[in-house]
């Protein structure tokens, strides 16, 4: 019945968990990295040891995960974390100095938006120029689920009308005209969009606006302005389409592949183009550089009519300081991105649903990475 | 004595043939007065009530069995893999099988432990104040604010902490920052449930203690809290269960890492909800889905373990009746 | 509860066994201990007030500038476009979704939860009570993110046909009119929330029912009451304030539940027509904020979301205040 006994019991209750984990840590300290068995030969003196933090676009998550794995396999003392929370979050945390570099589906904006200029804020935060380094290109698929339809061709105008709710059934004459010989059911079309603000939405609407300006009258942006039913994140829209006959959405290639969803071919005017790494790469190759020097912001020609080029792609950038206030951080970023931009890592990304950087761009990126300090 | 006698009002008043005023003070329905001459309607009602209660319990078991069945069915075999309890997720990407959850288990326990360390004393003491000490304006104000706090969604609590911790103080995101947000979520659960339990402690006990010359604080600690101990533990466990699975504050305040990280105050911090969240994006891949369900099952098991520990403490700490 | 008074009087009273030294000793530590303990309790309470005040200040400071720039009516507009040069946002849709889904959750969870608590404390055979209580606690042990996963992957596909059936059978009734939303409808969210808050209602109600004085129960039974009558006249009235408290806690949880709702809900596109149907989509305050928190890129936009959070804050408070009044009134009768 003593006070001390009760408080002792309470203390046990509260500290039990702590003690448990504290013990566990000690035991475990003896065998660091028990889960990482993929040991490779430790590379040359290029490895850093310690933590490197990054955050941003979820579209590049699978790519950067691969790059991290490749780097960490060689460098056992390096810990690199990437939070796939979204491009805007990445840039925000980068400016707030919470992460060492950001991943983004669009380059830092140089014109004022909501009273701020991203590029200037980033420059102020870095104390030096902030660079956009295109690192990965990800095709965006128009994924659908219609019973009995394995092959579907759309063009920009029809796609815009579908996503704007103007075309509401699958056997609409406009769709049928592009798909001769395919029996289309009268199922209603259910459009699913990303309910969170996303770079994928931004790039997809940029495409609709550029390739079908008459049919898509809305502004482009991270927030969806068309019609349909909103689901959270890429996984959300992909799952929704999978579970809904008549569903259609826009989603990164890797999610369409994971969910085994058929993807529409896009007719740019020179015949239907299937989505492959190669066809997406052709569009990227036509992109123009808008930044100067080592700032490699790219402008994609969404309205491309080049034969065999799949037009709906996004370029995801790593946003870095050109000169880090902390030289040590600069070394870490440089070391990791150098590995990320290397040919061997880039080649491996094709299997993950990404298109390779065109050789010319890749060389420029490598030069730029070398200039980071 | 007053409360106790008053609560017995209905019993006292029941004289044969007299209508009864139930404790609600509403005009007595005919329920008790009918008792002297039972008829079939009353019995039927009783049977219906019995059936309804059984049915309600059965109904409540449906989601339980379903959820546990799903989680165990899809996640159990992950828990039996060799590295699950010892390893971390370093170099395990969404399409790689397995890896360990130990980093996240340690992280979650540490974070929730810290949260409880801060929230439980504040919560219980606040409830003690409200029931045993509080009178007048301050008590009303506290009661009022606890109500408001219980209405703060986790995401808003997280944004608040972010604004203070990161934007104002310029500190880095960390496990500790997330724990602070969890404290805000846990306090009202602990206060409200403890308060209810303290109110149920009969005043005779307090008065008897005073009559014996026991100081008030000793009365509160030894008699009141002691009597309500089991209920308080239930409340604390509800609070822990609530914050353990919270994900939104972690998304904002405690970035995930696949590596071991024991420093709650610096850098990224691994937790089970974030581990689940990491694999959720790719759950169309069987490797990621298995890991996600495995982590979910692990999280449930952790909450349950804490529950069992709490029950044992409640059992040994409570007054035998 | 104004019964606890007269500490010093108790301290000064002689001990029943007349052991003066001990009594005196205790009295003096008692006074010091009392100041310490009472002080700690007061400080805790004040800390809570301070925290909530800080949150309120934070919310208001962030929300007010955004509200000043708002070009739509904040309470009656369904537009949500807080970014850009000319922000326009209104919360009507979130308010409707949040309140409706929570109402459905409470309509299901409170009766079932109380019935389960009664079952455990009054009806279940003695051997079954502890395991039954344990099972319900198990439901409380399931974290919200797991409810979200289960809802998304296991429950939604099963629920879809049920919803389709209700739509076709009762679609003439405006609340059940078909809307074309496939999955995460308000009704569905309400049911998932009900399952999530059920253990909260049950766990606390159970504790309170358990405390019903045996004299009350036996008194009723001795008078020939059936078990149900005994519950109605002794257990329920005694437990009502506790049940209300539990319900309020549950409601707070339902109104503010974030991650599970974010997983499950179907958002509406801009300009979708207004409907009273429970089978429409829509986001709750918490899910809307959580879903977009990553993109809070400037103060004006953040402020708009915070303003929405503020409404939720006030909403919860109003509901709780009503509950307080109900409890206070009951107290007036019992004391």
Automatic annotation (TrEMBL), chain A:
It comes from the Bacteria. Residues 42-343 form the PBP domain. Keywords: Phosphate transport, Signal, Transport. Residues 1-24 form the signal peptide. Pfam families: PBP_like_2. The keyword Signal applies. The keyword Signal applies. Belongs to the PstS family. This is Phosphate-binding protein. It comes from Terrabacter tumescens.
TrEMBL record, chain B:
It is found in: Cell membrane. Keywords: Cell membrane, Membrane, Phosphate transport, Transmembrane, Transmembrane helix, Transport. The chain crosses the membrane at residues 47-69, 111-131, 143-165, 171-191, 223-244, 292-314. Pfam families: BPD_transp_1. The keyword Iron-sulfur does not apply. Residues 105-310 form the ABC transmembrane type-1 domain. Residues 1-38 are annotated as: Disordered. Residues 1-11 have a biased composition (Basic and acidic residues). This is Phosphate transport system permease protein PstA. It is a multi-pass membrane protein. Belongs to the binding-protein-dependent transport system permease family. CysTW subfamily. Part of the binding-protein-dependent transport system for phosphate; probably responsible for the translocation of the substrate across the membrane.
Automatic annotation (TrEMBL), chain C:
It is found in: Cell membrane. Coiled coil: none annotated. The chain crosses the membrane at residues 36-61, 94-120, 132-155, 175-201, 250-269, 304-327. Residues 95-323 form the ABC transmembrane type-1 domain. The keyword Transmembrane applies. Residues 1-25 are annotated as: Disordered. Its main location: membrane. Signal peptide: none annotated. CDD domains: TM_PBP2 (cd06261). Gene3D superfamilies: MetI-like. Keywords: Cell membrane, Membrane, Phosphate transport, Transmembrane, Transmembrane helix, Transport. It is a multi-pass membrane protein. PROSITE patterns: ABC_TM1. PANTHER family: PHOSPHATE TRANSPORT SYSTEM PERMEASE PROTEIN PST (PTHR30425), PHOSPHATE TRANSPORT SYSTEM PERMEASE PROTEIN PSTC (PTHR30425:SF1). Part of the binding-protein-dependent transport system for phosphate; probably responsible for the translocation of the substrate across the membrane. Belongs to the binding-protein-dependent transport system permease family. CysTW subfamily. NCBIfam families: phosphate_pstC (TIGR02138). This is Phosphate transport system permease protein. It comes from Terrabacter tumescens. The lineage of its organism: Bacteria, Bacillati, Actinomycetota, Actinomycetes, Micrococcales. The gene is pstC.
